[in-house]
Specification:
The complex is a heterodimer. By secondary structure, chain A is mostly helical. Chain A is built from 20 helices and two strands. Chain A has two domains: 210 residues, no CATH class; 196 residues, no CATH class. Chain B is built from 19 helices and two strands. A two-stranded antiparallel ribbon of chain B has the order 1-2. The chains are: A mainly alpha, B mainly alpha.
């Protein structure tokens, strides 16, 4: 399965390269990620799993470094099928470090198991799929991105090979296959109506409302599933809970941000209000936020709680997508919220790795391990959107974008949901300051990850200008 | 460049909190020492700001300090003061200092306790000096987080529920403000979060202004609190630790009324003028409601908490009168009264909560019927309470009198009917006299014999507030001079 995918991606790269040498240079970060994945697999085959993790981390960080010079570049590759713009570049700058940190986080859970190195390879490959989505300029890239990131994710969820994870992976696989099939089927309507697979040609949908609607539904189903937007979220809580916690952290961030950015790439080219897309997306946003938060309110398992919370956060992301077509804040808000979400969500999951999945495991954490406890509080109230943390500035921009685009009611729904989400996250915070049991075992890798996430959560909140300056 | 005293004062407490984080595990004595030292330095900084003062008769803010923060969206770190915020800054610094002095007996996790209070002090000061809407909102929300952990960590039996209610309720209350801020931002041209620019040229008109005003009123009414959104207050107060109550009533409630002036009145003046009769009516009702409910309380702390609803109702009435007033003299009069009332309430209620807390520390109850003859048992505590209670009911010569007098005078000029609110004074007088009669006069009950009078720490905490109570009563011009410099030119 994996070798097949490498083949697909490889052909893409070579096909483009033969047309334009420039394209390959602009694609350096993606190529570095691919080489990292391959290298990790090779090290695994050579029975050197210990080397696979440092290799992966260094490879992903090199790829991140290669993406930095792309900031401010706005261009397209391979005959307009792939975009280098603020969204796709920031997707690299955010998602690749997150992938590296997830690899570090997973080390504690998968070390000394069979095929340890494949985890790192699969993480890199899935991230590559997310990057393909974030820069998609063509429906084929949408399909490619969804498939690439899905196949890697299925395998990652199934990795522990116990009943729980196998069942989760099966659900995920069936759900993913069906939604992907629906997406591919529906997208043919767009191809039929415009005669092109390029997103830039979607303007031709003007005057073809049925075709526009059919394709829109297809894209929303396919990308909505990837981003775990309600009502396409059913796989997420089971998959997150069945998978290793580090994989759940990865799934909640990397494919989600990729899919949201892909949706943004699609709607920015749709004709003004075609098939009522802003309203449809706004409806999904409201549904996803409300459902996610309500469902999270009754969870006793912190991973499931965070899974539903991530469904709610997808709803917030959609505010930025709705604003395309009506606000200059759309792209900046998505970029800032993506960085914020990545930092705070990764941090929260890292603490779960440290403490345990059950809500009862959190009793007394704040007293037994005050610093880790305080970090968890920071991550959770940042998810609520309390200033001056990252989540606040992200939500501020999202609300501003939605209001400017004329969706005041959606901003109101989002704000009510913020209160609801506070009730959700306080369910974790309150027991943390109860009577302590014994302190959880220390984990160096988790500590490294949550420390970095903590710094990022505060830094994105205070220094959002660094991100905004490169976007606006 | 002059010395940036506003920023230094603002961040000194935060520095203290950071220091305490680095010194984790140090004994309580050290933690309290750090807390008192840093809040003392902050008080000196506030006094320095007070000495610099505000220029008379000039529109706008003084002592402004500004650094770019998020230039892409027009947000910056901007701080400064005017005659409305400067007295509140000084009051905040005083209340935090005495609260930390009073708290020096807290042994349980003292380091975290002091650090949270210092964090809260920076947040409160920041809300008053922020001249950027985002910066204001940041500080405004951080106060919620700080207070949540103080109630949840060091409160009484039902603290978890009280803290949760407080956090959810006031977060729900504060988020509409964010919408209003965004509306003002998107309405301004070029887009900015600069309070000075928005105040100088209110960007919204018509329906947009009215909606923004309504959103802001919701936020600030919850915070103030006004009937019918006051229900979080008694619960939070009964469960909060004593010093938490002092800060909650003394400082956090002022954020509501300060926001009412700075945001609602100054940023949507025309909409506020249109809504003024309704706001005034609600304020009158709330003030009377607070007084009558307080009359029904036998728990001393709840009693003081409900008189806060009464006193803050007067403040809102003053602001509404100022919004409706057509001549500058009446407007300045009502606003002078409103600001002075905020300061007086902070000082007097702070003292009352401290004294009730001292009673509770001794008797482990706040039920007034379980006391009796306290004036004989603990004369110093008793007479201090009597003094503070008389101030609270508006006795001439003590803090509240001048403020309430000016508010009522302004009200008579604009809404003569609203003068029924004076009834509230009669009711508060009745309830305090009853409390004094039941708990402080009469024969001491047997099991209370041997109760100790105030110690050194307690005297140090409460005496400054009582001195200020008398000072504000006999020489209100000390504050009013500063306030009036701004209020007479607050609205064009």
């Amino acid at each position: 399965m994996i070798s097949l995918l490498q083949g697909m991606e490889g052909t893409q790269d070579m096909g483009g390269g033969m047309q334009m040498g420039r394209d390959l240079a602009l694609l350096a970060p993606e190529i570095a990620v691919l080489l990292t994945a391959v290298g990790a697999l090779v090290l695994e085959m050579l029975r050197l799993p210990r080397a696979a993790l440092p290799f992966t981390v260094i490879g992903l960080l090199v790829a991140t470094g290669l993406a930095i010079p792309l900031l401010g570049t706005e261009t397209t590759l391979f005959m307009d099928t792939f975009r280098i713009d603020a969204l796709s570049t920031w997707a690299k700058l955010v998602l690749l470090p997150v992938t590296a940190l997830c690899a570090v986080l997973s080390y504690g859970e998968v070390k000394d198991t069979d095929r340890e190195g494949t985890v790192y390879a699969l993480l890199s490959l899935t991230a590559l799929g997310a990057l393909a989505l974030a820069g998609a300029g063509d429906v084929m890239f949408l399909v490619l991105g969804v498939l690439l990131s899905s196949l890697g994710s299925f395998a990652l969820v199934a990795y522990p090979r116990d009943d729980h994870s196998t069942e989760a992976a099966m659900k995920y696989l069936v759900f993913g296959s069906v939604t992907s099939a629906v997406m591919i089927f529906g997208l043919t309507f767009w191809f039929g109506a415009t005669g092109s697979t390029l997103l830039a040609e979607l303007v031709a949908l003007e005057g073809a409302p049925l075709a526009a609607a059919a394709g829109l539904v297809a894209v929303l189903v396919g990308l909505g599933y990837k981003a775990s937007v309600a009502p396409f979220h059913f796989w997420a809580p089971d998959a997150y809970d069945g998978a290793p916690v580090s994989v759940a952290a990865f799934l909640s961030i990397v494919p989600k941000v990729g899919a949201i950015f892909a949706l943004a790439q699609v709607v920015r080219d749709l004709p003004q209000g075609a098939a009522g897309w802003p309203l449809v997306v706004a409806g999904l946003a409201a549904l996803s936020m409300t459902y996610g938060n309500l469902a999270a309110l009754v969870q006793e398992n912190v991973v499931r709680l965070l899974a539903y919370s991530s469904i709610a956060q997808s709803g917030y992301f959609l505010l930025g997508v709705v604003a395309f077509g009506g606000s200059d804040l759309a792209v900046p808000s998505l970029v800032v919220f993506a960085a914020a979400y990545a930092a705070m969500n990764l941090g929260a999951f890292a603490i779960v790795v440290l403490v345990g999945r059950d809500l009862r495991d959190f009793v007394g954490l704040g007293r037994a391990r005050p610093v880790a406890g305080a970090a968890m509080v920071v991550f959770l109230i940042s998810l609520v959107g309390v200033p001056p943390l990252a989540g606040f500035i992200g939500k501020l921009l999202l609300f501003g974008a939605a209001i400017e685009a004329g969706f005041v009611w959606l901003a109101v729904v989002a704000i009510l949901n913020s209160v609801l989400s506070l009730a959700v996250y306080l369910r974790v915070v309150v027991p943390m300051y109860g009577v302590p049991k014994e302190a959880p075992a220390r984990s160096r890798t988790a500590t490294v990850v949550w420390t970095i996430a903590l710094v990022a959560t505060v830094a994105v909140g205070l220094a959002a200008q660094v991100l905004l300056g490169s976007v606006a | 460049m002059t010395f940036p005293i506003v920023s230094v004062t603002l961040f000194l407490p935060l520095l203290g909190a950071a220091l305490l984080l680095l010194m984790r595990g140090s004994p309580p004595r050290v933690a309290h020492g750090v807390g008192i030292a840093f809040s003392g330095l902050t008080l000196l900084g506030a006094l320095w700001m007070w000495a610099r003062g505000v220029p008379t008769g000039e529109v706008g803010f003084s002592q402004v300090e500004e650094i770019p923060w998020i230039p892409s969206i027009g947000a910056a770190y901007r701080v400064g003061v005017d005659g409305v915020s400067l007295p509140l800054v000084l009051m905040t610094a005083v209340l935090f200092f005495v609260s930390l002095v009073f708290s020096a007996h807290v042994r349980e996790r003292a380091g975290s306790y002091v650090a949270l209070f210092l964090l809260l002090e920076t947040a409160c000061l920041g809300s008053f000096v922020a001249l950027d809407m985002i910066l204001f909102y940041v500080f405004f929300e951080v106060t919620l987080v700080g207070m949540y952990f103080i109630i949840a960590g060091w409160g009484y039996e039902g603290r978890q529920r009280a803290a949760l209610t407080f956090f959810l309720y006031t977060l729900l209350g504060s988020l509409p403000l964010l919408l209003a801020i965004l509306a003002l931002y998107l309405g301004s041209e070029p887009n900015t979060f600069d309070v000075r620019e928005i105040v100088a040229a209110p960007p919204l008109t018509g329906l947009a202004a009215m909606l923004a005003l309504i959103a802001m009123l919701v936020t600030f009414f919850v915070k103030t609190p006004l009937f019918p959104v006051h229900t979080w207050l008694p619960l939070a107060h009964t469960e909060a630790p004593t010093a938490g109550s002092v800060i909650l009533a003394g400082v956090l409630l002022k954020l509501g009324t300060y926001g009412l002036v700075r945001f609602a009145l100054q940023m949507t003046p025309d909409a506020f003028r249109a809504a003024a009769p309704y706001v005034a009516a609600l304020a009158v009702f709330s003030a009377l409601y607070g007084a009558f409910v307080a009359l029904g309380q036998t728990d001393l702390k709840r009693l003081v908490a409900y008189t806060s609803v009464n006193h803050m109702g007067y403040v809102v009435l003053g602001v509404a009168v100022a919004a409706a007033a057509t001549d500058a003299g009446t407007r300045a009069l009502a606003l002078d009264g409103a600001v002075l009332q905020m300061v007086s309430h902070g000082v007097v209620t702070g003292a009352l909560f401290l004294l009730v807390g001292m009673l509770q520390d001794r008797a482990h109850t706040r039920e007034m019927r379980e006391f009796g003859g306290l004036l004989r048992l603990v004369p110093v505590l008793g007479w201090f309470f009597v003094l503070a209670a008389f101030a609270s009911l508006g006795l001439p010569g003590l803090a509240h009198f001048a403020a309430e007098f000016q508010i009522f005078l302004g009200t008579l000029a604009v809404y003569p009917v609203a003068a029924v609110v004076v009834l509230g004074i009669a009711v508060t007088a009745g309830l305090y006299l009853r409390a004094i009669q039941v708990a402080f006069l009469g024969k001491p009950s047997e099991d209370r014999v041997g109760m100790k009078d105030l110690g050194r720490r307690e005297l140090l905490a409460v005496v400054p507030l009582l001195v200020l109570t008398v000072l504000l009563g006999v020489a209100p011009f000390l504050v009013l001079e500063t306030v009036h410099a701004t209020t007479r030119v607050l609205l064009p």
